[in-house]
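Consider the following input, taken from an annotated entry for Beta-lactamase (Pandoraea captiosa).
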Amino acid sequence: MKLRELAHSRTGDKGNTLNVSLICHDPRHYERLRREVTAERVKAFLGDVVRGAVVRYELPRIAAFNFVLSDALGGGVTRSLALDAHGKSLSSALMELEIDDSANIVESNDSDDTAAPG
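Applying the prediction step yields:
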């Protein structure tokens, strides 16, 4: 399955650094994405564009991640001749990342099936 089925993304830029947020559609998917969408995997997936380090910041209370991609914008908006100097399309590209669907599970600690009979 594609990452876009479990999350959405936004980007922001500062100089030659790109921030890519990844926000779970459902908080129950957070742990699964924490395991699967690592900084190393993002770096490998976007390696043609990202020349520097990738750092992942975890935001479990809002079921989100922030990835900081260094040296990812061809020198930055004022120096790059790229059509997407702000890197906005990279969030869409990241949504193409394949997520293991072999288990096809939704992590949840609370289930409607456990409600006490009334």
